[in-house]
Amino acid sequence: MGARTGAEYLAALDDRAIRVEIEGQVYTGSNVSSIPQFRNVVRTYAGLFDLQHEPDLRDVMTYESPTSGERVPMSFLQPESVEDVTRRGAAMRVWARHALGQLGRTGDYCNSAVMAMAGAADWFGQAERGFADNVRNYYEHIRENDLLLTHTLVLPQANRAVGPSQQRNQVLAARIMDENDNGIVIRGARILATIGPFADEILVMPSTVLKGTADDAPYSFAFAIPCDTPGLRFLCRESFDLGRSTFDHPLASRFEEIDAIVVFDDVLVPWERCFVVGEPEVCNGIYTETTAAVHMTHQVATRVTAKTEYMLGLVSLLTEAIGIEQFQHVGEKTAEVIVALETCRALLASAESGSTPNRFGLHTPAWPPLNACRNWYPRTFPRLAEIVRQLGASGLMALPTEADVFGPAQDDVERYLQSATLEGADRVRLFRLAWDTCLSSFAGRQSLYEHFFFGDPVRMAGALVASYDREPYKELVREFLSS
Ligand SMILES: Cc1cc2nc3c(=O)[nH]c(=O)nc-3n(C[C@H](O)[C@H](O)[C@H](O)COP(=O)(O)OP(=O)(O)OC[C@H]3O[C@@H](n4cnc5c(N)ncnc54)[C@H](O)[C@@H]3O)c2cc1C
Description:
α4 (82-98) packs across α10. The radius of gyration is 24 Å and the shape is globular. 48% of the residues lie in helices and 14% in strands. The strands form 4 sheets. It has a 6-stranded mixed beta sheet, with no helix packed on it. The longest helix is centred in the middle third of the chain and has 30 residues, at 292-321. It starts with 5 loop residues before the first helix and ends with a helix. By secondary structure, the protein is of the alpha+beta class. Bound molecules: flavin-adenine dinucleotide (FAD).
């Protein structure tokens, strides 16, 4: 099949009977794309698929499959050179910019993980029960069919002081209940799966909290299954897309990805979909040993660069609109956004140009700049949102809705909400976008998301310190001291 169009994605989604629970409604049938809370965002996702077929983007977004000859998404390209890594980056940039960096689960994110795991398939083969071919076959399956994946890693947040096997309820975190000729049987829950209800497949990957003990073995697995697998349910939070217009809720009405708790009611995972079973030590190594973490962070760094470009554009239009650009502190805050953008770009460029083959021969971006990016951005994005709040001030609350602006309040809006550069209606349009970026429930979720996107920043900082080679710098100081 190769790279899909938006219409093909929607048709396949509507063929699946994905079980979704949201705001008291239980949906068990097909036609997920018409569930009110998802109607808009699935169309945004369909638009991403369509971009792959734009004549001037086709060569950026897709490449020729080495097996079928079909055009397949660039995020599956197994890079053999620096040039291949930058080709991957260029494709990621198209989607990231199209969505202003607001979507965290565009297909290229999980595709990058599976691409890297397949490149390191032999590593999976070293496990006691090796599933190397499963990883290779799965990669080929999703590449050739251009499937949209989400993933779920984290165990329920019941009691973090003890491991999964010591929780009050013995079936809390998703665990292996049984193994039989057909596969493994999973019961329990995982937190969370963004876009779970409208993805084709879910990667159920190891959490990084596993201890290498027998107690953790039932919680140690990596597999992938279709989102309509019997027994699998998605229990969603409430939606921030209230079905309002793009004028009123410019971001939420397009980019509300939804987050869902994933419940496994004795889900049978066929053996051919298992990548690791019952081996905590192997699970703990998946992201680092295969370099999946590096390729995923390449996508994340590309996305946050696009998001920061958007933030700079927004801050610039907003300060211009209300004539505050000449104030010193406004310049200082705008400079903070520029510095953030240039930092993103520098880290990304350094990662791409510094790519080298990993031990499986797959060209892989340089990890230190990407690791710095994933540690730095969770602290940076909330500050950027704060800058929009501080500069927007009351303008973020003096915000009639579309019905007012183009209805009875039209004259008031034109007179009282005019700005230095914009007519009333356009100024409200701009400020509603600023509000949805820094204050709305959608905006609050974005700040939380950026903070925890790649895991707990506290523990990521610990991992950065532990893995960073500081010896040359210690030596520098030692030499100075001894001179
Ligand atoms: C909007 C959103 C979308 C998400 N989407 C997905 C998704 O699609 N797929 C997915 O797999 N996950 C997703 N997540 C989950 C995300 O991966 C986690 O939020 C992140 O890994 C942190 O884990 P936690 O939320 O369980 O926090 P916890 O681990 O419960 O931490 C809570 C607090 O306790 C502290 N803490 C806990 N344990 C320790 C410790 N051992 N040492 C030091 N401090 C500790 C933390 O620093 C933190 O402040 C999403 C999260 C959000 C917010």
